[in-house]
Design a protein that fits this description.
Radius of gyration: 17 Å
Mean pLDDT: 88
Number of strands: 2
Strand content: 5-15%
Largest sheet: 2 strands, parallel
Oligomer: single chain
Length: 116
């Protein structure tokens, strides 16, 4: 029998946390006088590195040091929003148990958290 491996993305797959990320971005930008629309956010920036999201809404290049400072603030907002509702996606635990029992190797590959 050959080895089978399953690799999972975290945001939106293992965890149903995208609404919390979206709300954190909404609050972050509101604090900078920018209102973002959910559809625009999802279609134009979801999954982008932080620095690109910032540049898109600020309408200017964002230097790495500034992007890092903003990322810290946004991440703090996200953690406060998501912590009370943190849990595995529906059916995930059973799927992982069944997969592991069948001999599958399991891995988690979250998207890039780069700010550049």
């Amino acid at each position: 029998m050959r080895d089978i491996g399953l690799l999972f993305d975290m945001d939106g797959v293992v965890c149903h946390n995208m609404p919390a990320h979206e709300e954190a971005w909404r609050r972050f930008f509101r604090g900078h006088g920018i209102e973002i629309e959910a559809r625009d956010f999802r279609e134009k920036t979801m999954g982008m590195p932080t620095r690109e999201v910032l540049a898109y809404y600020f309408k200017r290049p964002v230097p790495p040091d500034e992007a890092h400072a903003h990322a810290v603030v946004k991440e703090e907002l996200y953690r406060k929003l998501y912590l009370p509702q943190r849990r595995a996606a529906s059916g995930l635990r059973r799927f992982l148990s069944t997969s592991r029992a069948a001999g599958c190797r399991l891995g988690l590959a979250p998207g890039p958290r780069t700010i550049t």
